[in-house]
What does this fold into?
Amino acid sequence: MFVHEVRITAGFDEFRDRARDYILRGLAPDQVRFLAGESEQEMDLLASLRNETAFDGPAKQGKLTVPPAYLKLAKTIAHHASPRRWDLLYRILWRLQKESRQLLELAIDDDVREATLMQKAIHREIHKVHAFVRFEKVPNQEGEDESYFAWIETEHPVIELAAPFFARRFGDRRWSILTPHGSAFWDGENLTFGEGVATPPPRAESLDDLWKAYYRSSFNPARIKMKAMRAEMPLKYWKALPETEIINELIRTAPDRLSQMAERQNRRAEPPETKDLEHLKFAARSCQACPLFDSATQTVFGEGPATSRLMIIGEQPGDHEDQVGRPFVGPAGEVFDRAMKKAGIARSSAYITNSVKHFKWKPGPPGKLRLHQKPSGSEMHACRPWLEREIEAIRPDVIVCMGQTAATVLFGRAVRLADEVGKIHTHLPWAPRILVTYHPSAILRAMTEESKQTMLNSLETTLALARECVESEVLTEP
It folds into this structure.
């Protein structure tokens, strides 16, 4: 049987042009053999057969239409490592033209099933790249922009499909992602691709320690399932993940950690019986009622005059607050300060605190290494006694809860912000008037300019209403 052999070296675009030509010439799948890669042995074999198997003559002109589903499938499978992928795609293309345009709807068909499995393998690989890439900072010369790199071992050459995600997420930094099958480079504006790197470069210890600290703090010994862990995080990825170095240690100490978790399940902080804010602040520094103390830099207690009639409660300290040791001093604090000024409230006149006193975080993108995580119910429960002591010490006339966490802690139930914003609540024991509004960080995270402005208006209006309540004659009565 006459067989025409062709090597595909430029990916899907080259295959598409070749396949179209061969289909129009009437070459059946058993008359064409597609070779992948640039193996020297295969190149020598092809050269020895060229005189017998070369297909001469100009490309056939004509129109060839295919279902959109085929193009989507083919563009994905083009990144599979199997050398059979091109032959499979050509066979499906031939059958779409000669047998049925609905071929891809036949899930039980052998060719369709094999192609679908390849497609799923590529999607899984892309997901793994997104999940397991660990950037580290590249030592730069003075004056150079910061840049980052990561190495990850992949089974299939998927970097071109996976890299746009990182360009969107981390577009404000220069970075490189290296894999054995190819590399991606982002210069802040353009995404380019190059040759692969077979082995991982040495990692920087500073970032390794950060990932290990986060993994240790978030590891749940009650959910150890090694089989599931290996299925979700195959061993081939472990060499690029610094946190995997401590997995054996965490598993070995799991029984002790389980015992500690059981003891802490309903544990609450035990503040001293005092209304002296300085004494409370000092005592809170050593609080270990929940695991958050282990990964936070310090306790961030409230601040403001003990005689304040207005108390403002947020969720928890952020990255800046955790480092400085004061509430609302980061980007969300800037939004808060502007809203306070517009509402006519001097920051120094209010007592400002958070429901949870330690920063809960996870590693983030380059340049922003710690990202906020919402505190859990048990963490709010553990920290609530500190907030209760602050309220007892201040005895405010008005409390403003910024965000769902603060409202949930005071209301004692799950709170839907949209239902509570704009209301003056008078039925709770903490203060004569309690108001609820959006948290400044939620304003910063708003997806649209419209929603951002809506939440900002709510924050400013609520603070202004709180000022009016403080100034009213009703609240001046004993």
Summary: The two ends are 103 Å apart (CA to CA).
